[in-house]
């Protein structure tokens, strides 16, 4: 078979998951509550078909079978997250021995199968007690996070070499403080800015702590969802709108994490509108000195932007949307289930931007995937025929391949996600996995894409 797209030697093939979305056992193993457990208790109807995070895909009990499947489908790497409220119930203080035993078993099992674990510390799951103290609005919570990070490095750093401070830190800002799709459902841009700032500080402090551990061959990174911003036209107003959207939603985390400082234009905008966060002495140096080694790029969709047609009412509360409007590009390709545009070249544009403007930092695609509703419709002879997913992945991989040929420092590709899982407020609505999970029996079955991916990984290309 001819391989048209061959990837560099040692390329990382795998998938990503997060603790809350797969572990289940939310009330077992002495786990504390996080905001998702709590939000489901008080507002179950905010979740698709009223399904909460209690059981999810039951990885907690089935991790051996799952890791065996990862092996079977060609994973050489795998990203997971630690549940903060499982490792340290309540968010502060003593570690939970049952959690330590669980994560040790998972890590050891992965290593025994030659799958390198990539471990992320925070994937949207704030311990409830810390949220009640103000969550990321509180500087004391930043310190609690750093203590948690140190415990994780101390407990697992002898075996885990790739660490990540945060997954998509902009999402809790958008969901929890701007657009009302995560708890605590606040809509207030000033508070959102404070949350974003503290998260960036927490990440830099965790990087600083990581350096002190001197983990042999260890690398620390952050995972960002980058949504490249494309202007409707080249007229100055559209270009400006697109640049500002990029500042708010990409560069607000990318610049401090990789370059160690915020873009001046973003500071100016926030200052002009009285939105600057409260900072502390030494923060600037902290950011400057603690940039990441490695960048995970989650890519799902682009952002299409045009100039604001009507000036914002100066009496309405400040929002990023004061500066731009979204528009739907005519003829765009869509994932109709999720309502997201599919634009494969976006991955290439992101990588070229990292090459040109971010020192060609070592990176990888840490999430990319396609959620599909009612996927059992595609069941034939006991297997889901997800040709659309194979097409989705391979079209993105072609662009990634091109970026690598042009000198980008991209080292791998992780699909979202390993198996169908529970997703935030959408619960089990959209299925993303290589492995199908029966929500009731928890039975696992490989989809067609899983077999395809195994081949890709084995041949290091397709
Ligand atoms: C990313 C998250 C994942 C995952 C994925 C798919 O933003 O890191 O946790 O959920 O998106 O999105 P969704 O589940 O909302 O369809």
UniProtKB/TrEMBL annotation:
Molecular function terms, GO-annotated: beta-glucosidase activity
Keyword Hydrolase: yes
SUPFAM superfamilies from the UniProt entry: (Trans)glycosidases (SSF51445)
Keywords: Glycosidase, Hydrolase
Species of the source: Gracilibacillus dipsosauri
Protein name in the entry: 6-phospho-beta-glucosidase
Residues the record marks as active site: 367
Family note: Belongs to the glycosyl hydrolase 1 family.
One Gene Ontology term, aspect cellular component: cytosol
Record keyword Hydrolase present: yes
């Amino acid at each position: 078979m001819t391989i048209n797209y061959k990837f560099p030697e040692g390329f990382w093939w795998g998938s990503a998951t997060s603790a809350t979305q797969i572990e289940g056992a939310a009330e077992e193993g002495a786990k504390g509550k996080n905001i998702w457990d709590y939000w489901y208790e008080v507002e179950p109807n905010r979740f698709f078909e009223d399904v909460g995070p209690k059981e999810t895909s039951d990885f907690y009990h089935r991790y051996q079978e799952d890791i065996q499947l990862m092996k079977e489908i060609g994973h050489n790497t795998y990203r997971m997250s630690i549940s903060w409220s499982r490792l340290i119930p309540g968010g502060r203080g003593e570690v939970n021995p049952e959690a330590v035993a669980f994560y040790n078993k998972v890590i050891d099992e992965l290593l025994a199968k030659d799958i390198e674990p990539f471990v992320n510390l925070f994937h949207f799951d704030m311990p409830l007690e810390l949220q009640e103290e103000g969550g990321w609005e509180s500087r004391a919570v930043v310190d609690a996070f750093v203590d948690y990070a140190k415990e994780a490095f101390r407990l697992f750093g002898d075996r885990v070499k790739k660490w990540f401070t945060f997954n998509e830190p902009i999402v809790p800002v958008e969901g929890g403080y701007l657009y009302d799709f995560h708890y605590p459902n606040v809509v207030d841009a000033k508070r959102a800015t404070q949350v974003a700032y503290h998260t960036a500080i927490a990440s830099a402090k965790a990087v600083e702590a990581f350096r002190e551990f001197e983990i042999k061959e260890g690398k620390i990174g952050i995972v960002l969802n980058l949504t490249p911003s494309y202007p409707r036209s080249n007229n100055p107003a559209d270009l400006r709108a697109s640049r500002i959207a990029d500042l708010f939603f990409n560069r607000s985390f990318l610049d401090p994490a990789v370059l160690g400082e915020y873009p001046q234009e973003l500071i100016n905008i926030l200052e002009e509108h009285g939105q600057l966060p409260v900072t502390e002495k030494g923060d600037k140096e902290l950011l400057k000195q603690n940039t990441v080694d490695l960048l995970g790029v989650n890519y799902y969709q682009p952002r299409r932007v045009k100039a604001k047609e009507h000036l914002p009412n100066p009496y309405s509360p400040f929002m990023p949307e004061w500066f731009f409007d979204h528009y739907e590009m005519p003829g765009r390709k869509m994932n109709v289930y999720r309502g997201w545009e599919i634009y494969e070249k976006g991955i290439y544009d992101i990588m070229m931007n990292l090459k040109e403007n971010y020192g060609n930092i070592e990176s990888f695609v840490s999430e990319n995937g396609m959620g599909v509703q009612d996927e059992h419709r595609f069941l034939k002879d006991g297997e889901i025929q997800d040709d659309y997913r194979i097409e989705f992945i391979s079209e993105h991989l072609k662009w990634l391949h091109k970026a690598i040929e042009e000198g980008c420092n991209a080292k791998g590709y992780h699909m979202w996600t390993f198996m169908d899982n529970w997703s935030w407020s959408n619960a089990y609505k959209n299925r993303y996995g290589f492995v199908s999970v029966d929500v009731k029996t928890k039975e696992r079955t490989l989809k067609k894409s899983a077999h395809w991916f195994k081949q890709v990984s084995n041949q290091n290309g397709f």
